[in-house]
């Protein structure tokens, strides 16, 4: 977050790094995924004018992360899973704000058709954010 708005210069490369880290579990503590979600949150906050064009890729990656965290049956402790879900949800909420509510529109049908309670709860939080 030290770069602030200068992050825009590196956005394309940073996006590839973020997506790569979100896709792969890094062990029971999930330190890398938690850190990359924090990085994504800072990136969204500082480069918000550039987020609408990146929405499809980021939304897909965050939804995949929610699902993976919910379905993975590894040694990851419950508090770590909850932290991953909370940070991913926060990133979705920030994306929604940057994109003038477009995330909520895209998630409308998904929320009602999702049968998994934890994922549905994350989607509900996004839908109810202001």
Features:
single chain; 130 residues; mainly alpha; 6 helices; 70% helix; globular
List the helices and strands and how they pair.
Elements (H helix, E strand, L loop, with lengths): L10 H13 L7 H16 L8 H17 L6 H21 L3 H12 L3 H12 L2
Organism: Climacteris rufus (rufous treecreeper)
InterPro entries: Tti2
Protein name: TTI2 protein
* First-last Cα distance: 24 Å
- The low-confidence runs, each spanning 5 or more residues with pLDDT under 50, are none
Largest sheet: none
- How many domains is the backbone divided into? 1
Radius of gyration over C-alpha positions, nearest whole angstrom: 14 Å
Identify the overall geometry: globular
**How many extended strands?**
0
Instruction: Note the beta-strand portion.
Output: under 5%
**Main structural class:** mainly alpha
Description of the structure:
The protein is mostly helical and about 130 residues long. It has helices spanning about 10-25, 30-45, 55-70, 80-100, 100-115, 115-130. Helix 1 runs antiparallel to helix 2, helix 3 (about 55-70) packs antiparallel against helix 4 (about 80-100) and helix 4 (about 80-100) packs parallel to helix 6 (about 115-130). The protein is globular and about 40 Å long. The relative contact order is 0.14.
């Amino acid at each position: 977050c030290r770069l602030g708005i200068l992050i825009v210069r590196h956005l394309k490369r940073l996006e590839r790094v973020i997506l790569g880290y979100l896709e792969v579990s890094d062990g029971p503590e999930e330190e890398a995924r938690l850190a990359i979600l924090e990085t994504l949150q800072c990136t969204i906050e500082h480069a918000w004018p550039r987020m609408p064009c990146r929405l499809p890729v980021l939304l897909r990656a965050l939804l995949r992360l929610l699902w993976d965290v919910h379905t993975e049956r590894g040694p990851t402790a419950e508090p770590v899973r909850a932290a991953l879900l909370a940070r991913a949800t926060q990133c979705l909420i920030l994306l929604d704000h940057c994109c003038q509510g477009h995330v909520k529109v895209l998630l409308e049908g998904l929320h009602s058709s999702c049968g998994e309670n934890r994922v549905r709860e994350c989607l509900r939080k996004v839908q109810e954010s202001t």
